[in-house]
Amino acid sequence: MLAGLQGELHNLQPRFSSRNYKEQKVVSTTRKDQVYGILRQAIISSQLAPGEAIRKELVATQLGVSRTPVSEAINRLADEGLVEIYPQAGTFVARLWLDKIETAQFVRVALETAAVRRAAANGTVETAIQLRKNLEDQRKAAESLDFEQFYELDEALHDMICDASGLVGLREIAAKERSQIDRVRRLLLHYETRMSETLLEHEAIISAISARDPDLAAKTMEDHISKMGIMLLQLQQKRPELFGS
Amino acid sequence: MLAGLQGELHNLQPRFSSRNYKEQKVVSTTRKDQVYGILRQAIISSQLAPGEAIRKELVATQLGVSRTPVSEAINRLADEGLVEIYPQAGTFVARLWLDKIETAQFVRVALETAAVRRAAANGTVETAIQLRKNLEDQRKAAESLDFEQFYELDEALHDMICDASGLVGLREIAAKERSQIDRVRRLLLHYETRMSETLLEHEAIISAISARDPDLAAKTMEDHISKMGIMLLQLQQKRPELFGS
DNA sequence: AGCTGGTGTGTAACATGTTAGATGTTGAAT
DNA sequence: ATTCAACATCTAACATGTTACACACCAGCT
Fold first, then answer.
1. pTM over 0.85
2. Do B173 and A103 lie within an 8 Å CB cutoff?
């Protein structure tokens, strides 16, 4: 279903704020970047289903741009593992592969446990407050059964922990490696939520950070992500058609 | 110095072996991929120095291709953090940034200690033999003071450990995240080598894997990578011009 | 001199035309 | 009926033309 994309890219913003050559990073919203963002969102949210064909020319027409920025965006998505390109044949939304998901899960555990360990060691008061705030919002979202909101806060929490590690660019790396998993989690959202358990796990992580206990923080994080991993595997039973051979 | 690239891409190989739609992954050597490989190698080996301008059109001419595959290759290198693109202004080999190197170092430690832990837990006899073989080759390279060879064997060893984790695609992810560090290590190669110490550290790692001791393996790996991290910082004193502000 | 605005130049971004390869189909030979 | 080769079709890869923008330079003003 590409219809939803129609016309989303009209009246493009001016791309650069000012003279900025080799200066601070400005939000360089090229068409390529915009198309990338739209397609990525569509894939992760399963608006574009695994295995579905992507016709570049059609996408270009629908978004009102030429084939070039669409191709560039898709190349990037291919590097990220979200689309599969078969040269001279076709482009498809990547199907889910258990072994790739397993690797992504491993990378996620490795990066985020290490990050939370640093975050706990750094442990500023400001981050502790931010984390508590997020947790409170999660509780509200859970009470009103707002799955989408809960999901977004969950992502935000993990991003905040990466930032709290104090390592420049770690959040982006972690987010990129997490994209496969995010896709699966979105699909699971419709089946099951585990919100109350998740909430408790998040609370444990945040407490460990606040208490500046790196080892405990790492342990709680590992438990949390691992439990999610078990959930991910259940999806294959429920929706086998989404998976590659 | 781009002159070295001249004509390296002539008589392109046929790109696909046979009818292979959605079948096994064939080495799809598109021009884009070839240009990517050439440029990446040139950057990591410092044949193209940090901060140096890359003129796409010139590269295209030198390699005998059009601007399109060159642009695509460079986009990928930009995602990888090896080049900096300033829209409408110019493209440059990425300078070195201490904070990015620090993050890359962190990611490397996180991934490779986790990988070696799994490798030690899996611990097949075949991998132990392979690792010993590599170590022996390293010893020979060290004896004959063949820095380049030693460096390559070092990389191969880390790749083998990723593979021994049994996680599909982990090697590629680790290699990509390591590219910043590889570049710095290449530069250091000319100043200092530490081959004998490195050899001992590698031996400790391999012994731990062979002994199927995950905790020890992780510890030796962490020590090893961390020591390298200290070396990396020394480069800034020696070659400050390579670094960004 | 220092600041400001106009202009020129070079580059990446974008658009579009062309080529080559992968797949599906058809039809003839066996 | 089955095999296989020629062909048609569709798509990504590649080539090339065009546009827009960042920056440098210079002239004129204060």
1. yes
2. yes
Tokens 């555990």 belong to A109
Helix (H) or strand (E) holding A136: helix A125-143
Distance, in Å, from the CA atom of A69 to the CA atom of B11, rounded to the nearest integer, reads 29
Gap between the Cα atoms of B86 and A21, Å rounded: 7
Pick out the nucleotide with least CA–C1' distance to A87. Answer: D12
Give chain B's length: 245
Note whether B103 contacts A: Cβ–Cβ < 8 A. yes
Q: B168 vs A30: CB contact, 8 Å cut-off?
A: no
Output the pLDDT for position A232: 82
Q: Which residues of A touch B109 (CB under 8 A)?
A: 114
Residues 6+ apart with CB under 8 A from A245: none
Tokens 């991934």 found at: B111
Interface residues, strand D, Cβ cutoff 7 Å: A 14-16, 19-23, 54-57, 67-68, 71, 75, 85-91; B 30-32, 65-69, 72, 86-89
Residue matched to tokens 């009102």: A64
Tens digit of each residue's pLDDT (9 = 90 or more) over A194-217: 888 899 999 999 999 999 999 999
CB contact under 8 A, A106 and B118: yes
Q: Three-state DSSP class for A86?
A: strand
d(CA A38, CA A138): 26
- Minimum-distance nucleotide, CA of B58 to C1': C11
Q: Confidence class of residue A231 from pLDDT cuts 50, 70 and 90?
A: confident
Bridging pattern class, strands A90-93 and B53-54: unpaired
Chain A residues whose beta carbon lies within 8 Å of the beta carbon of residue B226: none
Mean pLDDT confidence for B178-183: 93
Q: Name which of A109, A193, A233, A195 is nearest B114 in CA terms.
A: A109
Rounded CA-CA distance B57/B63 in Å is 10
Q: Tell me the C-alpha distance between B107 and A111, whole Å.
A: 7
